[in-house]
Design brief:
about 325 residues; alpha/beta; Inosine-uridine Nucleoside N-ribohydrolase, Chain A; 8-stranded mixed sheet; about 35% helix; about 20% strand; binds beta-D-ribofuranose
């Protein structure tokens, strides 16, 4: 049976690959809706990009909603320096024609979780957690209805990528992350500690270009754009590919290794705002709220991505 999911996202090239994988895998995902967030770029562009992606995949049956235009307690920080001014630079997708749904994304999350049997819907999270946190504040009863949250977010051993101590998705809205991680929901976190081991080398990008479909070309072109920033920054043989860890974990969890730990978010530090503090060695009695993933099989990961992207038009 495919898993029912709500995707929360701010596409972004790496989110785009993750969303395309999910759209191409109806045997694994029953996507109830895509809720867009402000993050990598502003909300107007993320909702536009999500609509362009469902059209690219031929899946306009999947509804797209817009959530909140800014984080809960601070001004929006974006990442155009990585993703380009459109957020999907390199993809060159036409202006989408499928309409944005009128309902607010936060209300969609609340209504959907209340309408579905408890425990059946999981959250597939690719962005700052603003909309999920707002839904939990508005309707605390939904916490026990969420089966699992699988999120690309956080960092500990690899420290920060937007500040020296914080990973981007958490840094943009630390209050939201704090609310979500304290909500008592089974949570899997795919942090930089694993994504920095999953590099899109030139050979892997060539493989997407050679799939022979439009989707493969779009993926190769947009990752070619977004990885140039990381290649300069890290000097590695490829850039980390963050977003697809979420569908990969949900489809093949055995590809990854992690540990059940406490993860807490720094919400007021001057130098450490947005840091995910991981009690990896169990030196506190804080509740173990997260399966924290630190390792993954890079070859299997890129093989799965290529298999699913190869199914697109
Ligand atoms: C996260 O930051 C964003 O810029 C990427 O798209 C990814 O979601 C990685 O820290």
């Amino acid at each position: 049976m495919p898993r029912k999911v709500i995707i929360i996202t701010d596409p972004g090239q790496d989110q785009a690959v993750a969303i395309l994988m999910a759209l191409a895998a109806p045997e694994s995902f029953n996507i109830l809706g895509i809720v867009t967030s402000a993050g990598n770029i502003d909300l107007n562009k993320t909702q536009r990009n999500a609509r362009a992606l469902v059209e690219l995949a031929g899946r306009t049956d999947v509804p797209v909603f817009a959530g909140c235009p800014r984080p809960i307690g601070r001004p929006l920080v974006t990442a155009e320096h990585v993703h380009g001014p459109t957020g999907l630079d390199g993809a060159d997708l036409p202006e989408p024609t499928v309409a944005l749904r009128a309902q607010h994304g936060v209300d969609f999350i609340v209504e959907t979780l209340r309408a579905q049997p408890a425990g059946e819907v999981s959250i597939f999270s690719e962005s700052p957690l603003t909309n999920l946190a707002m839904a939990l504040v508005k309707a605390p009863d939904i916490a026990e209805r969420i089966g699992q949250i699988v999120m690309m977010a956080g960092a500990y051993f690899e420290v920060g990528n937007i500040t020296p101590s914080a990973e981007f998705n958490i840094y943009v809205d630390p209050q939201a992350a704090d609310i979500v991680l304290k909500a008592g929901i089974p949570t899997v976190m795919l942090p930089l500690d694993v994504t920095h081991k999953l590099l899109s080398t030139p050979e892997r990008l060539r493989c997407f270009a050679g799939l022979g479909n439009r989707g493969g070309k779009v993926v190769a072109n947009m990752l070619g754009f977004s990885e140039s920033f990381d290649l300069r920054k890290y000097g590695w043989m490829g850039a980390p590919l963050h977003g697809p860890t979420v569908p990969a974990f949900m489809i093949e969890p055995g590809m990854f290794k992690g540990r059940q730990v406490n993860v807490s978010v720094e919400i007021c530090g001057e130098l450490t705002l947005g840091m995910t503090v991981v009690d990896y060695w169990e030196v506190t009695d804080r509740p173990k709220n997260v399966l924290y993933v630190t390792d993954g099989d890079a070859d299997a990961y890129f093989k799965l991505i290529a298999k699913l992207i190869g199914r697109l038009p």
